[in-house]
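Fill-in record for Phosphoesterase.
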Amino acid sequence: MKLLFFSDVHGSPESFELLERHIESHAPDLLVLLGDALYHGPRNPLRPDYAPPQVVEQLNRRKEQIVAVRGNCDSEVDQMLLEFPLMSDYSTLLVDGHRFFLTHGHLWNPGQLPPIPAGAVFTYGHTHLPQLERLENGRIAFNPGSISLPKGGNPASFGFYEDGVLTVCRLQDAGEMLRLSLEP
């Protein structure tokens, strides 16, 4: 199974259009949205292309593929427009024997993990900083970064899972930034 992870769209149709190129070329089975789909939030700058209604249309076209969790900038009003569930604080996936705990990162984070088993992949967004590293008990912290408002001097990015390998890739050209095998 192939999974494409993305987070922190913050109402940017231009960023999602770039992501769609990689969706087409990678042909993932599922798209995992780790929150903050439409609203830019009071701490983030307003992008020149900020157009939440356009992002709603883009996301809804892919509603059958999307598994999503609520970000701190997502609201019930957003859910009224989106045609896939977005309001859960977390979700889990079991893929190829690997357990993924999905959350935005504002309630749980690598420093305050939820009760997940050894070897699980703690998958989150929120910080806009890519991360892919092993933690204690073989747990893995995985953040695909942000497709629209990257921070820390990082480029816009997304994540990908295939055949037991996680990667974080640049949004612009899908160049690999981080790579980790889930096998111990």
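KEY FINDING: The longest helix spans residues 13-26.
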